[in-house]
């Protein structure tokens, strides 16, 4: 905790709501995380592809972790508060009380999570309209966006639909809880709800998809007051929220960001001088921020709008003010690695050996791969083992949620060696998917030279090296591992008025920690792996076509 001599230091609180936990950090004006806390939150999966949470549970966790990180700090030094969260849908009534998003009528479960795919038929109908707003989401809307979920609620839960007062994206729900102001962030409404910064809401879209009742009340239920990320919301923290969070009443609260965008903010603007990177002395548009946790997002910015088939956007000022954002993504990355590793028959052996060596299961697997590689580079161990990673559908660049995962090259072996190999092949498949996304962005006009990684998977050196080798681009890791929290704190810093702009705060609070260079001697091997990777989806579509002809 800061010493008494540091009384002049200004601090900002960043709160990040992920899929499984809430985290908070106390961050200084140089981007250093001074204190950090985390608390798990509950997830319900009442049936396949249905994922639900509780807004009350989430807020309680926000309060708990925030109190923990500011304990013992002089309140006058805390200048601002910023939130980021997953793009989950929060449903409340006219008195802001939770409404059920499930057929069981469990009102405390009032959040449809971002990764929920219940609205598959609704999104198919929405995409069939070919409405002009779809051109800003890569040509086809994702089931993970909010309009299909709204339509699902209307069609399947008419009682809840009739009682709805407000639909919030989770980041906006948090800023409302803190300030009592129902303003929405430009980030959320542009990226997940079809709002555009120049035209606002498009009446014809909502009427065409059967949600004309949202138009009638001038969009009050989904937001008719929109703020730029980092802009101060209302009069700051309310007395009630201040007591809940353990913060001083009235401190600045920022318009929020989606979690991936906060991660992008925390890394993409860092000063790279002296690191011999191709993006040095180049505009920020030569960088892609990759936020990799449960899922992965690939954030690239441009000075003019670039329309990339299968990649979300272009979204104006959704992450960095004044720049257009394109957002690629993979719906299951960390979740996929966990699924593959924990579901393997040799997992109990792995768990026991990792525990005995006092290492995490992934550190142990990385060491085991080094043992079995012999004279080969580690990555070459999968010459006969290939994975297509879309176990939860493809978000980018194919936008096909019906795609399934594939593994080619299995044997009857069931030991730890085989578990290590399928783990490696899965990581490589995720990196090959990133290459697929980057190639689509570059083909459309992006000029990308450098990757900036943050999130939980960026702590895994094998994951990082595979992304460098397979994309052929250097990977920059931030000095602060918790870049998403730094991004949230940057919002609070901007709202406080201590920085003139988001860009200034990004440059001062984002710091480079390590650079991982690609091994160009391995290029030919990974080019061949990529050829196989693309063949896998061709084969999947071919066998589907055969079976669909029945």
Automatic annotation (TrEMBL):
Carbohydrate kinase FGGY N-terminal domain boundaries: 11-266
Transferase among keywords: yes
Protein name: FGGY carbohydrate kinase domain-containing protein
Cellular-component GO terms for this entry: cytoplasm
Keywords associated with the record: Kinase, Transferase
InterPro entries: ATPase_NBD, Carb_kinase_FGGY, FGGY_C, FGGY_N, FGGY_RbtK-like
Organism: Rhodinocichla rosea
The family this protein is said to belong to: Belongs to the FGGY kinase family.
GO biological process: pentose metabolic process
PANTHER family to which the protein is assigned, alphabetical: FGGY CARBOHYDRATE KINASE DOMAIN-CONTAINING PROTEIN, RIBULOKINASE
Domain Carbohydrate kinase FGGY C-terminal: 289-495
């Amino acid at each position: 905790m800061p010493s008494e001599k540091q009384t002049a230091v200004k601090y900002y609180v960043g709160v990040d709501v992920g899929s499984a936990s809430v985290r908070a950090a106390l961050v200084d004006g140089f981007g250093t995380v001074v204190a950090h806390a985390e608390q798990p939150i509950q997830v319900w999966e009442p049936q396949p592809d249905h994922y639900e949470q509780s807004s009350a549970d989430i807020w309680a966790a926000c309060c708990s972790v925030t109190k923990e990180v500011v304990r013992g700090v002089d309140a006058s030094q805390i200048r601002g508060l910023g939130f980021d969260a997953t793009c989950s849908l929060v449903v409340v009534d006219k008195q802001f009380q939770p409404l059920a998003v499930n057929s069981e009528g469990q009102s405390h479960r009032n959040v449809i999570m971002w990764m929920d795919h219940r609205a598959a038929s609704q999104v198919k109908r929405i995409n069939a309209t070919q409405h002009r707003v779809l051109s800003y989401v890569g040509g086809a809307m994702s089931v993970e966006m909010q309009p299909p979920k709204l339509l699902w609620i209307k069609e399947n839960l008419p009682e809840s639909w009739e009682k709805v007062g407000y639909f919030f994206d989770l980041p906006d729900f948090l800023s409302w809880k803190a300030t009592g102001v129902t303003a929405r962030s430009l980030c959320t409404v542009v990226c997940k709800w079809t709002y555009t910064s120049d035209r606002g809401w498009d009446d014809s879209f909502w009427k065409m998809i059967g949600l004309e009742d949202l138009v009638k009340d001038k969009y009050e239920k989904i937001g008719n007051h929109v703020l730029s990320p980092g802009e101060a919301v209302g009069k700051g923290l309310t007395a009630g929220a201040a007591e809940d969070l353990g913060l001083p009443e009235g401190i600045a609260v920022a318009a929020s960001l989606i979690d991936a965008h906060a991660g992008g903010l925390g890394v993409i603007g860092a000063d790279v001088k002296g690191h011999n990177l191709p993006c040095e002395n180049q505009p920020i548009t030569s960088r892609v921020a990759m936020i990799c946790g449960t899922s992965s997002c690939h954030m690239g910015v441009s000075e003019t709008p670039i329309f990339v088939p299968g990649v979300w956007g272009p979204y104006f000022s959704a992450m960095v003010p004044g720049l257009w954002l394109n957002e690629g993504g993979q719906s299951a990355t960390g979740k996929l690695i966990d699924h593959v590793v924990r579901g393997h028959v040799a997992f109990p052996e792995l768990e026991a050996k990792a525990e005995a060596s006092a290492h995490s299961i992934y550190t142990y697997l990385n060491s085991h791969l080094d043992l079995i590689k012999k004279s080969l580079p580690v990555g070459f161990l999968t010459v006969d083992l290939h994975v297509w990673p879309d176990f939860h559908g493809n978000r980018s660049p194919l936008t096909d949620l019906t795609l399934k995962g594939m593994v080619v090259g299995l044997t009857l072996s069931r030991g730890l060696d085989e578990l290590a190999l399928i783990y490696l092949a899965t990581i490589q498949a995720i990196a090959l998917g990133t290459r697929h996304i980057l190639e689509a962005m570059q083909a459309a006009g992006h000029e990308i030279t450098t990757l900036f990684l943050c999130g939980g998977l960026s702590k895994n050196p094998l994951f990082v090296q595979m992304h460098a080798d397979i994309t052929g681009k250097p990977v920059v890791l931030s000095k602060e591992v918790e870049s998403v929290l730094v991004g949230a704190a940057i919002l609070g810093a901007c709202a406080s008025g201590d920085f003139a702009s988001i860009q200034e705060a990004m440059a001062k609070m984002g710091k480079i920690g390590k650079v991982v260079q690609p091994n160009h001697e391995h290029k030919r091997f990974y080019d061949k792996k990529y050829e196989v990777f693309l063949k896998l989806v061709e084969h999947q579509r071919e066998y589907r076509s055969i079976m669909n002809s029945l």
